[in-house]
UniProtKB/TrEMBL annotation:
It comes from Patella caerulea. The keyword Cytoplasm does not apply. It comes from the Eukaryota. This is EF-hand domain-containing protein. PANTHER family: LEUCINE RICH REPEAT FAMILY PROTEIN, RNI-LIKE PROTEIN. SUPFAM superfamilies: EF-hand, RNI-like. Keywords: Calcium. InterPro entries: EF-hand-dom_pair (IPR011992), EF_Hand_1_Ca_BS (IPR018247), EF_hand_dom (IPR002048), Leu-rich_rpt (IPR001611), LRR-containing (IPR052394), LRR_dom_sf (IPR032675). Gene3D superfamilies: Ribonuclease Inhibitor (3.80.10.10). It holds the Pfam family LRR_6. Residues 23-42 have a biased composition (Polar residues). Residues 418-453 form the EF-hand domain. One of its GO terms (molecular function) is calcium ion binding.
Length: 482
């Protein structure tokens, strides 16, 4: 069958905004054969924002030939992995270094592909223009139901076309837009997408930069959305009035079943707003508000809300400064007969013996629940001769004014960055006397080398403990044994 390709391009190199309003049909563009070199086109007049139409072979449901030809005209090397897997329902191309041009060729092929149902192109740095290619493809492709665009630096230029596509797309059900540098100014694009889209059930907007202003755009749209069941807004900047706005919208949504608001700095105001979600929403099954600086005083409000909630099954509030009192409040909240909670995750929150006793008694009657928390305060011990040294267990908590913050910081960083062994080696390198002891300054130096940020309060706590036991050095030998 004849293989003729028409290139329909719009001039945008000098004025991108003007180009968006230009409509150029195939009748106004040159028709060239697939043998004609790409460099014969006047590239001063045309950019690479092209649509390639092919007299499709009735048996080519993958877009294979179109992809090969597109790569030829774009002067890029075809990705063999894509050619090998473009006929499979799940296509995973994470961190393939596609870039804008590479994704352009892929998008052209997927425009007529009927085989791929799930597309994962995380971490390909396709940028805004690449987001536009994907958005244009999804206006025609009616087969892809799952799309992962995380960590692609889409920014504002990518947010606009993606959201425009979402307003008309009727097939996407799962969409991951995590880590794309979206800011408050981009939130306006999501208003129409969230209010008009009637298909997306899972939306991940984590690791972006939505703050207070963005929350006032996103909030009402989230409240009005009638299809979202799983929303991830973790790792943004939803604080104070922004936190309240988002929580109010979630409270009023009648469809959401799972919500993640971790790592946002909700604080006291956000903590009370979380209590309102639990009190008013009888649909949400899983709620995560971990790492949000929610204080103990907010825990009492959350506790009262838990007493009357008969829907929530998983509640995660890990690594918040609730203390033993806040932990006890939450335990009392789930003790009511109406509670159906199956998981109460308070990892990283210190408790005391009174809490342990109350939990033990509670679990005698409630066998179908899991409760996680940190060590009791009595477990925060310092081992070693009191007059000679301070032994720090880097896999157990450390006594301080705010228990365990130093060690939790170190442990979490080592796990996340996978540098535990390297940190050991660094500690040994600094230890010139080979006695497994370091001064506070030397210990802090090792932490800085590992890019572990210890606050001034952390350093003061370490110094105060050493002074209390008349010690000047930190013994890190136990850290070396595991």
């Amino acid at each position: 069958m004849a293989s003729e390709i028409q290139l329909a391009m719009t001039p945008i190199e000098e004025d991108e905004e003007k180009a968006d309003d230009v409509s150029i049909t195939s009748e106004t563009q040159p028709s060239i054969s697939s043998d004609q070199p790409f460099d014969t086109l006047n590239q001063n007049e045309y950019d690479t924002d092209l649509e390639m139409e092919k007299e499709a072979d009735e048996f080519d449901v993958t877009g294979r030939q179109l992809y090969i030809t597109a790569c030829k005209h774009l002067a890029i090397v075809p990705v063999s992995y894509f050619l090998q897997h473009m006929q499979e329902p799940t296509l995973v191309m994470k961190y393939h270094g596609l870039g804008p041009l590479g994704i352009k060729a892929v998008a052209l092929a997927l425009q007529i592909n009927t085989q791929v149902l799930s597309l994962d192109i995380e971490g390909n740095w396709i940028e805004g223009i690449g987001g536009k290619y994907i958005a244009n493809m999804l206006k025609d492709n009616i087969y892809i139901t799952e799309l992962n665009l995380a960590d692609n630096n889409l920014g504002s230029k990518g947010a606009a076309p993606i959201c425009e596509m979402l307003a008309v797309n009727t097939t996407l059900q799962i969409l991951n837009l995590s880590g794309n540098n979206f800011t408050d100014s981009d939130a306006v694009y999501f208003v129409e997408a969230l209010t008009e889209n009637r298909r997306v059930q899972f939306l991940n907007l984590s690791h972006n930069r939505f703050g207070e202003k963005g929350a006032f755009f996103l909030g009402p749209a989230i409240a009005e959305n009638e299809t979202l069941e799983d929303l991830d807004l973790s790792w943004n900047c939803l604080r104070k009035r922004g936190a309240i706005e988002i929580c109010d919208s979630i409270k009023n949504n009648a469809r959401l079943k799972k919500v993640n608001l971790a790592f946002n700095g909700l604080g006291k105001e956000g903590g009370r707003a979380v209590a309102d979600i639990i009190k008013s929403n009888s649909i949400i099954l899983e709620l995560d508000v971990s790492h949000n600086r929610i204080p103990a005083e907010a825990a009492s409000f959350i506790s009262k809300s838990l007493e009357g909630n008969d829907a929530l099954k998983v509640f995660r509030i890990t690594h918040n400064p609730l203390g033993p009192g806040g932990a006890m409040d939450l335990l009392k909240g789930i003790a009511s007969d109406s509670s159906v909670l199956e998981v109460l995750d308070m990892s990283g929150i210190e408790v005391d013996k009174a809490f342990i006793a109350a939990k033990t008694e509670f679990l005698e009657t409630r066998k179908n629940i899991e409760i996680f928390h940190s060590h009791t305060l009595e477990d925060y011990v310092i081992k070693g001769p009191p007059k000679s040294k301070l032994r720090i267990l880097l896999n157990t908590p450390l006594v301080e004014i705010e228990p365990s913050s130093v060690l939790n910081t170190i442990n979490e960083h080592c796990i996340e960055k996978r540098i535990r062994i390297k940190l050991k080696e660094r500690l040994l390198t600094i230890d010139k006397n080979n006695d497994n002891k370091l001064s506070v300054a030397e210990f802090i130096s090792a932490m800085q080398w590992a890019e572990i940020c210890l606050s001034a309060g952390d350093v003061s706590n370490l110094t105060a403990i050493l002074k209390t036991i008349n010690a000047t050095e930190i013994d890190f030998s136990i850290f070396l044994k595991d």
